[in-house]
Amino acid sequence: MLKILCVGPQWRGSNASALFKAFSRLGYIVDVVDENYYINLGNRKLLTKVIDKIFFRQHVIEFNEAVSRSVAIFKPDLILVYKGAFVLPAYLKRWKSNGPVVNVYPDVSFRSHGKHLPHTLPLYDWIFTTKTFGLSDMKTDLNITAASFVPHGFDPDIHRPLLASGLLAKQLTCEVSFIGTHSLKKERYLSALVKAIPTLDLKIWGNGWQRATAENLNASIQYKEVVGDLYAMAINASKINLGILSEQVIGASSGDLITSRTFHIPAAGGFLLHERTNESVLYYEEDSEAAFFQGEEELINKVKYYLTHESERLRITALGMKHAWAQHGIDQRAESMLFTLKQKAILKSQ
After folding, report:
1. Would you say the pTM of this structure is higher than 0.85?
2. In what order do the strands lie in the sheet with 272-275?
3. Domain residue spans in the chain?
4. Mean pLDDT across the chain, nearest whole number?
């Protein structure tokens, strides 16, 4: 039986956790080393930030040592690292003496998530990137060719129809929501939307929105995340869920073309109004399984339209969910990864 050592965060609702659970559901033996047990990035108070900064290097070493211990005891057939921002090159080289080590890289850029990634990514036996442009970026910048594209998928344990009730329903219910980290582009789109529809009941969830300067968004910003079951509830409590994509950043040749929400929202039973790209329209039939927009004007017009055409909105929601559950589950992505590794002779058939 294939033994997989998974390295990465496993908080409820994380994309890494979803993938690790998928391997387990598929019948493989899984062990997990969670970097968050060793490295704390969530401190907000000054004193704990200072303390963590002083001991940060030691925490990173402890994390890498924990992976090494698991390798020695578990003897995995495959080590799968999710992102791996805190993996150190010297340790990665040691792990490879046990067998293949692969990376799943989920972000737009590998130059904006710490100093180690440009040094460790070339060492992996294979890299799965969730960005199609990530393949050319890695080849151009790091001379990496042992890589392939795999899109995100939804987690059936998390992204499913889940209705809030009572006070929680009151807190989550809205006409339109955006769930995601702040960026200037997202702020610009949402500010234009509220300017065009001043009475719009909009809720914005996610990190970094304290940086927003558009005053007309103040009432909409919730200043917190919704993750796990709350994420699924928030999707179901919104008449329209926006899929606004991240823009280009340093180290990337493109902004996002699809994202994890591309699959989470329909699977959870939410109506998806997604930014139109040459990739996003490949996953759902437009105006049948999801709606799409390009630019502020079309975003505004589509929001107005679907808020006043409930039966059409509900029909699209139902078909989008059916399509997502048929084709875009994380278990299917996990199977495709293992198939690729066997095809490339990186992983032996069990």
Report:
1. yes
2. 202-205, 174-179, 238-243, 272-275, 291-293
3. 3-153+329-343, 166-327
4. 95
